[in-house]
Amino acid sequence: MSTPPRPGQSGRSSDPGRPSGSPPRQPPNDANRPRRPGQERPSGEHEVKGLAFRDDGDGEQEAPPTPAREARRITWQKLTFLPVFILLVLLATWLWFNQADLDTISKNALSGGNVWKALRQHIVLTVISTFFVLIIAIPLGILLTRRMFRKATPVALAFANMGQATPAIGLLALLVIWLGIGRRSALIGIIIYAILPVLSNTIAGLKANDPTLIEAARGIGMSPLGVLTKVELPLAVPLILAGVRTALVLNVGTATLATFGGGGGLGVLITTGITNQRMPVLMLGSILTIALALLVDWLASLAELLLRPRGLEVRS
């Protein structure tokens, strides 16, 4: 005898394809339904191996931001603008000299390789004096920041200030009286005059280091030499390089006075033009000195950018 159907339930299944007594079919899930090409998925839904999944919200995480592209240290404007300007100035000077009507005195002053000789002497004076400034001022600045020699820092800076405060021509005259005429007197005068920027910047850069970083380096067992070479000096590099750049430009300018001590250089052309009242010779010596100073400053700025530790760069 068959059991009568319960109220609200018909005797036949609502799904004609489903056998009687089997569980009802679940409605199709839109997430698992295949998508047409180009059809966008709803927000919060993603596909893995052809199957669609939806995030519940709590476990949803945003993708990490794309790292910004690292900016170049040296741009093409930095590489090209100043050298092109210097070349244009030198080209205009050369064209003007080719068309200028020079007298015998001017021709004698500029002929026979005198210009190249003066330029070479000027470069040699600048390079040698800068080398000695670096090997004197940087180690001295490091020494004066050590605990044992800190009390001598004001005395050393006072002497360095006196060297730069003294007029360069007067200092050179005293050295010529003491050491005689020659390149040695000129080099010593240039070195004394350019020590202050490198020495003061080295001391300031080492004193500006964060003491907590130095204590942390000591706490992990680094030796005093390791702390100096791996922590203190890299942090002070920007200020030291700025002092070196200033000293280079000072040396180029001061080297023009070496001619009064028998050191040669582009100052020979300048003094010849002044004493003989020959403007072309005076202008050539002045233009070459300015061009050399700009070129040296440009090269020092490139070195300052390249040698600066990447960890000290400010990222926008």
From TrEMBL:
Membrane-protein topology: Multi-pass membrane protein
Transmembrane region(s): 79-97, 123-144, 156-181, 187-206, 254-274, 281-300
Stretches for region Disordered: 1-69
Residue ranges constituting the ABC transmembrane type-1 domain according to the UniProt record: 119-300
Pfam families noted in UniProt: BPD_transp_1
Biased composition (Low complexity): 8-20
Composition-biased stretches (Basic and acidic residues): 37-56
Keyword Manganese: no
Family listed: Belongs to the binding-protein-dependent transport system permease family.
Record-given protein name: ABC transporter permease
Organism the protein comes from: Streptomyces beihaiensis
Lineage: Bacteria, Bacillati, Actinomycetota, Actinomycetes, Kitasatosporales
